[in-house]
Amino acid sequence: MNSFSCSAGGALLLSCAAAAAAQVSPELWDRPRSAAAVMAQDAVRQAVAAHHARAGSRMIIVHGTRPEAQLQAEELRAWLVALAVDGARLSLRADPVAAELRIEVSE
């Protein structure tokens, strides 16, 4: 479930929370990735928009502890950097209970 949007009608209001998070769809990993496929993910698109709209924000990719989950997180990070997200403001964090990748944007 995505939680970047805080108003009716899907408008993205960034002042509604200090931190926001969204799950990346597991279907992203079922096929070859491209920049278009990565940005077609609602969670990715909303996270990038929120990140770019908040000066000084950080983007964190939360992943499970399995090697596959870490590899997916690293690949997603590489795609985000290729799509103009500042790598210095983007990090990975392992979470033993994470079943899917999650992108968090925080102040």
Written account of the structure:
This protein is α+β, with helices and mostly antiparallel strands and 107 residues long. It is 31% helix and 20% strand. It has three helices and four strands; from the N terminus they run E-H-H-E-H-E-E. It has helices at residues 35-39, 42-53, 67-82; strands spanning 19-23, 58-63, 90-94, 102-106. It has a four-stranded mixed sheet with strand order 1-4-2-3, covered by helices on one side. Helix 3 (67-82) links the parallel strand 2 and strand 3 (90-94). The radius of gyration is 13 Å and the shape is globular. 25% of the residues are buried. Mean pLDDT is 81; it is low at 1-18.
Give the key terms.
single chain, 107 residues, alpha+beta, 3 helices, 31% helix, globular, disordered N terminus
How do you describe this structure in short?
By secondary structure, this protein is of the alpha+beta class. It has helices spanning 35-39, 42-53, 67-82, and strands spanning 19-23, 58-63, 90-94, 102-106.
Content of β-strand:
15-25%
Average pLDDT metric: 81
Q: Biggest β-sheet: count, sense, barrel?
A: 4 strands, mixed
* Rg over C-alpha atoms, rounded to the nearest angstrom: 13 Å
Morphology call: globular
Assign the structural class, choosing from mainly alpha, mainly beta, alpha/beta, alpha+beta, or little secondary structure.
alpha+beta
Could you tell me how far the N terminus lies from the C terminus, measured between alpha carbons in angstroms? 20 Å
Q: Spell out the helices and strands N to C.
A: EHHEHEE
Count every beta strand, where a strand is a DSSP E run of 2 or more residues. 4
Poorly predicted ranges: 1-18
Strand order of the largest sheet: 1-4-2-3
Proportion of helical residues: 25-40%
Q: Count the helices. How many? A: 3
